[in-house]
Amino acid sequence: MTSVSAATSSPLPASEPLDETPPIGEKRAPSVDPVARPSQRPKKKRTGALDMKRLETLIEGRKASLCVDAVSVSFDGFRAINDLTLILDAGELRCLIGPNGAGKTTLMDIITGKTAPDEGSVYLVGHGRDLIGLSEYEISRLGICRKFQRPTVFHGHSVWENLELAIAGNRGVWHALFGKLSGDQKTRIEEALETIKLTDVRNRTAGELAHGQKQWLEIGMLLVQNPRVLLVDEPVAGMTHAETDRTAELLNSLAGERTVVVVEHDMEFVRKIAKKVTVLHQGSVLAEGTLDEVQAHPRVIEVYLGAPTPHA
Amino acid sequence: MSTATEILTRMHSRRGWIGVGVLALIGLVLLPLLNTALPPTSPLHLADHVVTLLGKFCCFAITAVALDLIWGFCGILSLGHGVFFALGGYAMGMYLMRAMQGMGVYRSQLPDFMVFLDWKELPWFWLGFDNFFFALAMVVVVPGLLAYAFGYFAFRSRIKGVYFSIITQALTYALMLLFFRNDTGLGGNNGLTDFKHIYGYSLALPSTKLALFVLSVLTLILTYLACRYIVTAKVGRVLRAVRDAESRLMFCGYDSKQYKLFVWVFSAVLCGIAGALYVPQVGIINPSELQPSNSIEMAIWTAVGGRGTLLGAALGALVVNGAKSFFTGALPELWLYILGAMFILTTLFMPQGIVGAIQIAMANRKAKLATPTPTVPAAPTEAA
Predict the structure, then answer these.
(1) In angstroms, what CA-CA distances link B303 with A25, A251, B274, B334, B361?
(2) Which ipTM score applies to this complex?
């Protein structure tokens, strides 16, 4: 999808194309509005069962991997996420941008099971149920992994132990009591250490690492988890230029096999990595397209700069 | 599966194992020899009452190690471990009461307090306690089940930190009130006492006392090794991750409540065993063991000795209880002040406890030798 779509405050459904000409290569089912407002839909009881029909409508004609379907959540009356629909294609690298309070981190909280939404569903394509209602660890085991805004590694553990804890495999108590890393797992940790350039400090305590190294360690922890969908919150905050470049390279190399979602404020960085950008505003999708497209979008300019624009 | 040698080297360095071996020899061979082989007139002779006292300390040390496993390594501060200790103790006490049928004051088949209350038959939950091995099973099962039920709901509701501690205090208080009632059928205020035999051996005999002491030492060593195994296995690293960054761990795909539940139940079972060893040595179990202050005292043993060191917890239990025995004899009215002072001074000047402070000092010395420049105190390593 390369169209620039809009707008929450308009009475139109959120992703009705703003411009009349549909972009090339875009197929859209004309008769169905995939993002009908919840009020227009019969309220669905949360059973955890997968509404196949709805999912098919949502992902029609695309190679989707994760669908966020009409999700809303309020905190004390404040609607942090407002009827948000977002479809991520398999193997794409998507940037999420938006002003503070747009709901970027809350969206990640919902996808990863930290926050339960009031309405809506999250589907992982190929998995037979709604992710809402699953706990954090269950969602993580399905292959949706997350890097936090501030580097969150296990500070008291060594670099190696951090990766050992993160690595995909049996995570039960019994295995942790009597099990052992397989040779394959060890190789994967070694490879991840190479990728994140921490081989030399593998026995150092993670708390002693420099800020950028911690960021990388956390990315490494995602790598060994072998995820299908990577959610990365502000990966280059506090990094030097060189480190930022390497991170961009790393994230780009991850996309393709995996779906990568990056939340970032640094527009220069976004330009480096993003093919497609989604702009969030007040808990909804404001615009979606290439970076140039969204930057030219009048509502985006209005939201970011506060400039009054004539309404379309 | 790891090989045995791998596990042993993981648990301790060569020097560490030698240390464990020396301590085991002192407890299992030297002290019993001082008690039996030397004549009572010898200055090195270990009197029978001292043997029993040391046995009691060993039970406390087991409790402290069990508490350290959940507090020091998993960040769960229980102020209700007295519950599990007492339940283990009561299970053993019930057996000891049944083992003296017909030998009580009233020469009845029922325990004395039941005769006193004019009960005609044994309540259902006393059935089976005639059997020593059934009682031993209950020593493990009863604390384990209660811990499982309590932990299941607490951890599922994600109750943490000080809230968890307060609830454990409430638990021990509630149980104390329950056990104080005569209708509960466990001797009420007086508890269970006046025991005569254990497994056919008279509790009055010095040899029985010595055997109980040796058993306590052995249990302490096994407890330490089991906990040491846990904290050096992957499960220990997961537990430390629960303590440091639980939500990160869940995003790594770990069901942290399973780990907490495992270590919580394990710790409770260890406490139950300690309680069961304690009762035949002191000869009484009553609801005062369930006082909230008792459980807090257990936390103080662990804090004074050094949290997250296991060995420190055992040492703390010995030091604090040694001081208690001395001061309650010498200056009885001052003991609580001294206990409070010990706790405050430790918190202020040795936040890592005795063993933690020693580890920091050793790490500093090592660092000083390695580099001439002054270094930041290193975090205590968990080696002991």
Answers:
(1) 67, 46, 19, 21, 18
(2) 0.87
